[in-house]
Sequence to fold (279 residues):
Amino acid sequence: MDLHSHSTVSDGTDAPEVVVQKAKAAGLRVLALTDHDTFDGLAAAGAAAEAEGIELVPGMEMSCELGGRSVHLLAYGVDRANAALDAELRKVRAGRDDRMPRMIARLGELGMPLTEAEVMVHVGEAPSIGRPHIADAMVDKGYVADRTEAFDRFLSEGGPAYVDRYHTQLEDGIALIRAAGGVAVIAHPWGRGSRAVLGPEELTRLVNDHGLDGFEVDHVDHGPEERAQLRELADSLQVLGTGSSDYHGDGKPGLLLGANTTTPEAYARLRELMDSRAG
Ligand code: AMP
Ligand code: MN
Ligand code: MN
Ligand code: MN
Fold:
């Protein structure tokens, strides 16, 4: 059971139906497709899951912020027609659209000219434009070898080509997902420096005061010690502690579907919550 993956609808490199087919081939029984700030891949993924005989959890990974830092929030089983959530996701995607030309301008100043068309080749039909698409265009131009180098040298938060964009306040994101009948789980809470704003007290506050349903434990961005601490915290708070690959196709080489997984017990609890809220 792998509860976090991406397709070409955001910054993954496999089409939604291909992600599902690869999940089946990898031996998964359950897959959540959780593209950034959009539900657009879920119809195609759902049809493929039916054909392949695997269970698809409808998901989405929402761009939020806490204390000025980016925090990703996974939403499962929401009502996709919910007007408030839809309006907020449009705002987030508009922020993505606005940022792209500004980052291209920065790269130009750094001696790495790119056109919007060169980035759009990698965006394709995706409604959710991300920095990885810019990274892919940089690879085409020979400026960097891969996405990792593009992020490490230029695109990461605070890097020379980084430009900020609109993010939903984390507490508001949880409230929107819950109000849309969904389940809210923080993605990689201690990945890439997020621990600074998401320590144990903060995670406890978000559970007790804001209805957070859980957080990822087994994720490539967490080391063994962090996983052990997060597992203990999830158990003591009696919330979901999940595992996932955060699969991005070729976008994160070597990271295969099922690289980390969720236990049947945690998945059963997620199902119960989704069914009881009936988003
Ligand atoms: P954005 O959605 O535009 O804010 O870009 C963030 C996305 O970039 C994440 O969802 C990852 O897929 C990807 N990403 C972030 N950091 C790195 C990195 N160091 N190497 C490769 N991909 C990264
Ligand atoms: Mn991504
Ligand atoms: Mn993420
Ligand atoms: Mn992700």
The first strand starts at residue 30 and ends at 33. The mean pLDDT is 97. The beta strands are 30-33, 55-66, 69-76, 168-169, 183-186, 214-218, 240-243.
